[in-house]
Design a protein that fits this description.
The protein has a single domain, classed as P-loop containing nucleotide triphosphate hydrolases (Rossmann fold), CATH 3.40.50. α1 packs across α12 and α6 runs parallel beside α7. It has an eight-stranded mixed sheet, with helices on both faces. With about 260 residues, the protein is of the alpha/beta class. The protein contains twelve helices and eight strands. It binds adenosine-5'-diphosphate and magnesium ion. Magnesium ion (MG) binds next to α1. Adenosine-5'-diphosphate binds next to α1, β7 and α10.
Length: about 260
C-alpha cells in the first residue's frame, strides 16, 4: 500500500507545486515508485513534470467524474522517473460538476485504490483553496505536508488549514494527520524569517521538518524546462535540499509504519 500525502496550503505561491515535483523526483532517485496527482486546474505540477497539458486526452478531471480510471489516464514523467495524473483548466469545472454527485469527497480515494499496488508514494498537489478538490485530496491521504514561507502572517494562515484538517479527520478520514511543516524559500540572512522559524519550532515541535529549503533560483528556473529542480540541476543548493527532504520523508515514514 502506498503512503498518500497531500501537499497543501490554502495560500498561493508558497511552494506547494515545487515541493510536490521535487519530492517526487527525490523519492524516485532513491528507488521509490511515485505517483503525482495534480489537483490544481493551473496544472503546474503537470507542466513542471514535463507533461504537456494541451495534449492531454485524459486527466484527473475524467477520473473524478468517473469517465476514466487512473491506469489509463496517468502519464509518465520520463526524466523525473515518476508517474503523473495530470490536470488542465477543465478541472476547474469539476468543482461545480461534482457538487450534485454522490461520493463527491471520496472519488479520488476510490480511484487511487485501484492502482495501490503500483506505488510506494502518492503525492497530491492541492490547489490554493480549501475547496472540494482539496477535500478530495484530504479524504484520500494519510497525511498532509505543509510548505510555508517564514513570514509574518505564516502562523495565522495555518489556523484555517489546521482546523480543516481536524474536521476532515473527525468526520471523513480518520487516517489523516499533519506529517509536517516544511520551511521553504528560506533566507537565513533575514532576521524575521529566523524568528518565525523559531516560533514554528516552539509551537509545532517535531512537526517541523529538519530539512529547510533555501530560496534558490535554479528551483524557479526548472519548471520552464519541464523538470523538477532535482532533475534540472541536482547539484544546486535547492535541489540538494529537496534530495535531503526526500530522505527525511522516507525515514519518517519508515518509523511511522
Ligand atoms: P504554489 O504551488 O504554492 O502556488 P509554487 O511551487 O508554484 O507555489 O511556487 C511559487 C513560485 O515560487 C514559483 O515561481 C516557483 O518557481 C518559486 N519557488 C518555489 N520554491 C522556491 C525556492 N525554494 N526558491 C526560489 N523560488 C522558488
Ligand atoms: Mg501550485
Amino acid at each position: 500500500m502506498p503512503r498518500i500525502f497531500c501537499i497543501a496550503n490554502q495560500k498561493g505561491g508558497v511552494g506547494k507545486t515545487t515541493t510536490t515535483v521535487n519530492l517526487a523526483a527525490g523519492l524516485a532517485r532513491i528507488g521509490q515508485r511515485v505517483l503525482v496527482v495534480d489537483l490544481d486546474p493551473q496544472g503546474n505540477a503537470s507542466t513542471g513534470s514535463g507533461v504537456d497539458k494541451r495534449t492531454l486526452e485524459l486527466s484527473v478531471y475524467d477520473v473524478l467524474l468517473e469517465q476514466a480510471g487512473i491506469a489509463e489516464a496517468r502519464r509518465r514523467s520520463e526524466q523525473g522517473g515518476y508517474d503523473v495524473l495530470a490536470a488542465n483548466r477543465e478541472l476547474a469545472g469539476a468543482e461545480v460538476e461534482l457538487v450534485g454527485l454522490e461520493h463527491r469527497n471520496t472519488r479520488l480515494r476510490q480511484a487511487l485504490a485501484t492502482v495501490a499496488a503500483d506505488y510506494d508514494f502518492v503525492l497530491i498537489d492541492c490547489p490554493p483553496s480549501l475547496s472540494l478538490l482539496t477535500l478530495n485530496g484530504l479524504c484520500s491521504a494519510h497525511g498532509v505536508i505543509v510548505p510555508m514561507q517564514c513570514e509574518y502572517f505564516a502562523l495565522e494562515g495555518l489556523t484555517d488549514l489546521v482546523n480543516t484538517i481536524k474536521q476532515v479527520h473527525a468526520n471523513l478520514n480518520r487516517d489523516l494527520q499533519i506529517i509536517g511543516l516544511l520551511r521553504v524559500m528560506f533566507d537565513p540572512r533575514i532576521t524575521l524569517q529566523q524568528q518565525v522559524s523559531e516560533q514554528l519550532k516552539a509551537h509545532f515541535k517535531n512537526k517541523v521538518f529538519n530539512t529547510v529549503i533555501p530560496r534558490n533560483v535554479r528551483l524557479a528556473e526548472a519548471p520552464s524546462y519541464g523538470q523538477a529542480g532535482v532533475v534540472f540541476d541536482p547539484s544546486s543548493r535547492g535541489a540538494q535540499a529537496y534530495i535531503a527532504f526526500a530522505q527525511e520523508m522516507a525515514e519518517r515514514i519508515g518509523t511511522m509504519r
